[in-house]
Every structure is written in structure tokens, then in C-alpha cells.
Amino acid sequence: MTSTSDHELGLLIGVLPAELQSAVRALAPAQLLEVVMDLGRTPEARLEGRAERLAGTPVGRADIDAVLTELSPVGEDNRTGIEGTLHRISVIRNRRGEVVGLTLRVGRAVVGAVELLRDLVETGQNVLLLGRPGVGKTTKLREIARVLADDLGRRVVVVDTSNEIGGDGDVPHPGIGAARRMQVPRPDRQHAVMIEAVENHMPEVIVVDEIGTSAEAAAARTIAERGVQLIGTAHGNTLENLVLNPTLSDLVGGVHTVTLGDDEARRRHSPKTVTERRGAPTFDVVVEMVGRDEVVVHHDAGAAVDRLLAGDAVRGERRQPGRAPTPDVPAAAPEAPGPARRSRAGNPATWEGPVLIYLHAISRDLLVRALRDVSVDARIVNNPEHSDIIFALRARADDQKIRRLAEAGRPVHTVKRNSGSELRRVLQAAFPTVPGMDDEVVREAILEIEQAIDRAVSENITVALGAQPPPLRKVQHRVAARHHHVEVYSEGHEPFRHLVVRPAGGDDFDEDEAAAP
């Protein structure tokens, strides 16, 4: 660490109770992330990958009050700092507004933290950083402001809501270089200060942290439309998170549902109701921060969103220090399953992970509500080639593509009409559940009947299953009812009654148990 960093860390340690200061100083300073003090609990230091207890006695109210007296007044965002440093201190309050917890987070200016992204910000494009808390978004944002202002000579204004970028106090921290800093009086005023910065101070670049409301998203679009370069961060780990966030999706163009005409739907080989990008993205480039030294770059945010909504793989560019950029694996694409997913066999209720459903002439909104009602682990995709199963309106199920996939073994479930009750019925048929029974028990019963059917057909023999209670036998009957090449009936008396599977052609069949409940 540099002497400046040592001095600033010393200022943070100096506000702690005396008995904690020596314990913190004994830790590796470069690994220290934050110190946590909660009333009635032992204090701890959080380092990279681990936590260290700092004392054997719990934190008392006098300890918390002693720290608060050393700090600037706490703002409406429950944050404060130490003047001249980048440290951030956040408070936790009880219902009466009294402080009962402190998080003292270490802030550092890291020269060179922007090298992975320098080529992006130098072009003048609008760049959005995404990542989990603590991954280093603000550190990179601070260094971007310094590089743009000092190395490239741009007029940079930092909109600093919690003084986290430019540090506490009226004089900005040297970590932002020659960039100017505008403080925000209250968190709900960040959008207004963003606009004020453009209107009053003629910036070429606006740098803003934590865009999190619709007003801030609208302000960001306004800034971009005025020709000012915008560098910011937003809540969310991946591009997918952003697209699914109705408040912030406008940052990458927004999403809306469009109903196509019959001819257009046939031309696209898609359902009549599709989800599309609404407009041009506010940010040209989206950077997913995987770690402090690893990012995934989406150079064309609009094209990436279009691919994601179409169910295609969203391949970014993975960057790490000292390595040439490489294409990213399509892990961020929720609708791009690999061959293992498309080759799933048996009943969907036995599969691991979410089942991917393609809708043909069926309302997406109705199925989303039905999925919530039935509590099924499933996701809707826009490309039938990427689906595990297909739900289709019966009158439209003769579509050539649907027939081809069905002939290839893709399960197709049909409904008579677009209604919530019909969709709940088909979901319950596709994903059998038994109220009051563990899902794993139901899954094992389904696997048992599937394996028995396969054996009966392949070996042309009769297969007896293990004894099951009536609810599980009904589930097994429903599964077997979809296999027309076998017959299933029950034998024995409770509690030893069980199912028997044999190739089609016999006479015995238990009508009562075979009926769907």
C-alpha cells in the first residue's frame, strides 16, 4: 500500500474503540474490506474470503456512540464518511431511529483499475457497469473519472450521491483527479442533480454511481440524448437481470410485448405475441463485473438484448489482466440451453433445474400467472429449438415446426383455449404434484413408472412396481396414460397395492385409479 493509503486506513482505524484498533492493525491491510459492529454481538473484520472476530466481548451502545462522535453527521441515506478519505460508514437503526449497527467499509483509490475498460471509455461511448456489491464497481468508476479528466483532458462531472466516489468533505479526494464533483443532498435528488450537472456545468462526461430508480433511468436517457458521454453503474449482476428489471430495463432499450399479424408471425416462425426491445439503449456498452479482475463486455447492448429476447446465446467478451480477450460462454443467456438440456427424457417433474417452455399461440401473461399458481420451476423461451417442452393451442398445433419437433421427441401439450384454468390443468398434467408429499418422493414415483414403461416395451414383458399409496398411484397412472403402447393396472390390497405395466394388448385395467383426479 502507498503511504497515502496507509494514512487513510489509519484514519478509519482511529475512529474505532481503543480495544479494537490493535486487533485491526494486526490484519493484512490490503485484504481488509470492512469492520462490522452490531449491538450485542462481537465485532468482526471482513477480509477477502473470510471474517475475523476482533474481540471476545459484545459491542455496547457506548462503543457505537463513541464511533459516531468521530464521524461527520449521518445523512438521510444512513451513510457518512471521514473527511478527506474514501471510506464509507453505514448505520443500521432500530424502529425508534437509534443506531444499533455500523458497517465501516474501507475505500481505496486504485490506479490502473480501469485498464480492462480503458479502450471502451476512450471512444466516447456510454458505458454501464453491472455487478454484485463489493466487486469493485465504484473503484473502477472513480478511476475512470480520473483517467478521462487527467489523461484525456475531458470535462468530467461526478454526481456523487453518498460521497463514495469523491470522498467525504467539501474537497474531492485526489482519486478522481481533475474531475469536478457535485454532491447530492438526498438520495431521491440524484436524478435532479444529474440534469443540473448537464444544464449548468457543460460537462463532456457525466459519471454516476448506482442508477436505481425510474427517475434516474429517465435522467440518464436525457443526458445521453444531449450528446454527453455517460459512465454509470446499476443494480444487477448480468444483462439478463437488467432486462428483467422493469424499472431499469430502459437503460438497455426497454422491453415490451408486441402482437404480430398472422403473416409476420409465420415469416418469423414465432408466436403472435413476442417480447421485443422497445427502443435504442441509453448505454452503448454493458460490462458485467464477474470479479475485481474479470469482466464480460457486451460491445453492442442493443444487439445483445435482442439476442437474449429471441432466446439466442448472448456471448460477450471475457477480459482478464494479462490475457487476450476471449468470447464468453453463453452462461448469461437464460434461453440458450445446451444439448444436454434438449435431450432430456422422461417426465419434466423429474428433471433438474428449470424446464424451458415454448408457447405456440398461447398467452405468455396467462402462463406466467399459472406458473405462479402451480409453483412449477419453469421458464418461457422464445425459440422452440431451445425448449424442453411445448405448450400449444390445439387449433394451431398442426404447425409444421411444432409437428417436426414432436416427431423428434419434444413433448407437446395442447389446450383447447387461452384461459388460466386450461393452462393450470396442462401444467398439473405435465408436472404432477401431490399435496402434502415431498416433491422428491413424487419424483421417485414418476421415475419408477417411466423406467417400468421403458423396460416393458424394450423387453416385451410385464413389470410390477413397488407398493405406493393411492395418491402416488394416481400420479403414476397419469404418467402412463400418455404412453399408448403400454397398459397399466393395479394389483393387491392396501397397503401393498401396486401398479403393473405390460405392453399394450391386455384386458385388465383399473378404471377408478386410472382416472385423473
TrEMBL record:
Record region (Disordered): 312-347
Residue ranges of coiled coil: none
Low complexity composition bias: residue spans: 323-347
SUPFAM superfamilies for the chain: P-loop containing nucleoside triphosphate hydrolases (SSF52540)
Keywords: ATP-binding, Nucleotide-binding
SMART domains, per the entry: AAA (SM00382)
Domain of life: Bacteria
Entry keyword annotation includes Ribonucleoprotein: no
Domain R3H: 439-505
Name of this protein: AAA family ATPase
